[in-house]
Write a structure and sequence with these properties.
- By secondary structure, the chain is an alpha/beta fold.
- The protein is built from eleven helices and 15 strands.
- It starts with 8 loop residues before the first strand and ends with a helix.
Length: about 350
């Protein structure tokens, strides 16, 4: 937790500035998961619609995303501004870079600016963990992670915090990267991780699947999925790139973080709808409605459930608000301690 000496307060503007290192230090999964759970319940209960994200193409290799919104059930509002440049990693930069800006509703004043990449990594995995607990079978004990990047690492940690798995598999398009991932994460988390060469085998021998890749075309097929499996689709957040085929979407009970966003931007859903296999009614509910017991989630142990994660600004704002409050309390505590010392 950040001490008084590490608090990054812009005294002129009165804005908390939270770096990536501070986000990672202060935002544990045990803290983030309940924040995200509450945010998703509040979002789905909010009768006022939130705006869709806007994405602007930059040159030929990058995109700039703007996600405005408000914290449902509160007076706070703000936006996430993020750039996505695929060549960033090769050039020793992050692929995603940006900030979350939080405003206070009572005054309209900006009160906090936080690193968006660090928040996005943690809150996305926390949302997946929340959805998995709501939708996966109670006896699900075999986990497969498809992908070997930053989100794969975060999802592995988040998913194993709340549930014990007897077997964990990882699949990646690069065998060497998958092996490195398994080696490093086994050491970091104390887990036994199996590297699978075939996506089909990884899917067929697991009952909780999580896709966190940048695949442009489906690599996971509905024909491979066993009854009772739960799948988290996370890697694609814009129309176009799809991680799974339309048959998988069609055969699943399909849940989303936002129904409005999914109908406009969930690539796998859009492909299945365009092919005539499903219509808009295939989206059964938002995960917030399931968490709030306003809609049934899994109804039996043979159903295939899917949670489609697009990511919502309410998640970013809720986490930024949590971090802002934490830093403000730390600063107040440090001031009080200094006064007592004097």
């Amino acid at each position: 937790m950040a001490g008084a000496e590490s608090l990054n307060m812009n005294e002129t503007l009165g804005i908390n500035l939270i770096t990536a290192d501070e986000v990672e230090r202060m935002l544990s999964f045990s803290a983030c998961i309940p924040v995200i759970r509450d945010a998703m319940i509040a979002f789905s209960a909010d009768p006022k619609p939130q705006q869709l994200r806007s994405v602007v193409e930059i040159a030929t290799s990058g995109h700039f995303g703007v996600m405005p919104g408000r914290m449902s059930g509160s007076d706070f509002f703000g936006a996430k501004l993020v750039s996505v440049f695929p060549d960033g990693v090769a050039n020793s930069r992050q692929r995603h870079q940006g900030i979350v800006v939080l405003f206070e509703g009572a005054t309209g004043a900006p009160i906090c600016i936080a690193d968006a990449e660090a928040i996005t990594t943690i809150r996305t995995a926390a949302a997946t963990a929340v959805a998995t607990e709501a939708l996966a079978r109670a006896d699900a004990r075999h986990l497969a992670i498809f992908g070997c990047g930053t989100q794969a690492r975060a999802h592995l940690e988040a998913l194993t915090r709340g549930r014990s798995y007897d077997r964990i598999r990882v699949w990646g398009r690069s065998r060497s990267r998958a092996e490195q991932f398994a080696r490093e994460e086994s050491k970091r988390l104390g887990l036994d991780i199996i590297v699978e060469d075939q996506a089909e085998r990884a899917a067929g021998e697991s009952d909780v699947l999580c896709t966190v890749t940048n695949a442009a075309e489906p690599f996971l097929k509905g024909a491979w999925i066993n009854p009772g499996t739960h799948i988290n689709l996370v890697g694609s957040s814009i129309p176009g790139p799809s991680e799974v085929d339309s048959a998988l979407v069609q055969k699943s009970r399909y849940f989303v973080d936002s129904a409005v966003s999914a109908r406009a931007q969930a690539a796998e859903f859009l492909r299945a709808r365009a092919s005539g296999l499903i219509d808009d009614a295939h989206i059964l509910a938002e995960i917030g409605e399931v968490l709030d017991n306003r809609h049934a989630g899994r109804e039996n142990d043979t159903e295939i459930t899917v949670y489609k994660s697009l990511g919502l600004v309410v998640q970013d704002l809720a986490v930024t608000h949590y971090l802002h409050d934490l830093m403000t309390c730390n600063a107040a505590g440090a001031d009080a301690a200094a006064m007592l010392a004097d």
